[in-house]
Amino acid sequence: MTLRIEDLPKEELFGQGNGGCKACGAAIAGRQAMKVLGERTIITIPASCMATLGGNNQKTAWKIPFYHTLFEMAPAVSSGIRAALEIQGVNDVNVVSWGGDAGSADIGFQALTGAAERNEHMIHVCYDNEMYMNTGGQQSSQTPLYALTSNDHIGKPVKKKNMLAIMEAHGLDYVASASIAYPFDLMEKFQNALANPGFSYIHILAPCYRGWQIPGEKTIEFARLAVESGLWELFEVKKGVRTRTHEPSLIPVADYLLPQGRFKNISKKAVEEIQTSITKYYGRGDK
Amino acid sequence: MAKNLPIVPTAKPGSMAETPAGSTWREKRPVLMNCTCLEVTLYCPDGALSIVEGKVSLDLNLCKGCGICANECKDGGIQMVPEYTGAQGVFPVKGEE
Ligand SMILES: Cc1ncc(C[n+]2csc(CCOP(=O)(O)OP(=O)(O)O)c2C)c(N)n1
Ligand code: SF4
Ligand code: SF4
Ligand SMILES: [Mg+2]
User: What is the pTM for the complete model shown?
Assistant: First the structure.
């Protein structure tokens, strides 16, 4: 099951010539996922950067069928695609809906929870850049506590909504978090999702350097720091059994938070509080 | 049945790669010195890096010059160099053929 780079298909089913910014974490997530999903895949994407950067009616960066849906409904459209495939007796196609944090956790949530409840045979991916980037970086339910967004000059006063826990609560057979800095972990989770004949949910932390106010070349580096600081836990829940898939080294959370422009208002006390809760969560502290 | 899935009915599959606009934004470009970590190909957002005969290979037409590959290459085998430097011309790069 363990993937090796030599085994990956050479073909680029998505990404080449895409219209996104340089250093786009969402595009990286798409490329890594497509290495496993393969050419027999139909993807729906609601309004978002990922939809826009994939092209339009004249030109496309995709080599698989890609449908740019309205914001509220990618998982509903994918449910319909699965039904249409089933009625035609086509069983070898992977059906995926792929939304941003707003397209999954906020505006797109009702279609997502419906498809999950019905246990549709599909994968929903939330690529999470923790804000509404395509419209200029507004706050979402996935924006972390204290982060600045374009519509807020103080910093988010409430916590990031725990989407993985919400999706787990649907009783799904496969739920996983992933990060673009750990491509093999990510790709193995896509393999596991493909093996599940029902609904699977994968939530990928995919930094956006513009929104996070970090240098573009550090997109992967910050994705890695999020994991190694313990703030973004890599795990999967397979048929109710939860496994941590990467044991973080627990570098100080300050090393992840403070270099990012979006956390420039964070207080020393707030950083200490976050550190205390992380240390406690991983059970490596005194308490 | 449904052997060939329709991509976008009016667009040729992968057609954005034929006229990639992003390479014209490039301020710096990567130079592969002796990069041996094949994983960097998975970090490129634009599919500009591939593995050819066991080695990392670069297609500059697709590269936006983001610098991720140079930042991630473990052995420092990729170096970013300025694309143009005004009146001085392009800086010579050590080790580049
Ligand atoms: C119903 C509806 N409301 C608002 C918009 C405008 N809109 C387009 S993309 C977007 C933000 C998308 O955010 P997210 O899903 O996080 O994806 P990102 O752009 O961050 O990748 C918004 C608000 C829309 N297209 N449709
Ligand atoms: S704004 Fe961010 S998420 Fe959107 S295309 Fe640019 S880098 Fe990607
Ligand atoms: S600079 Fe960026 S776009 Fe160019 S090859 Fe490296 S990772 Fe890819
Ligand atoms: Mg977003």
Answer: 0.95
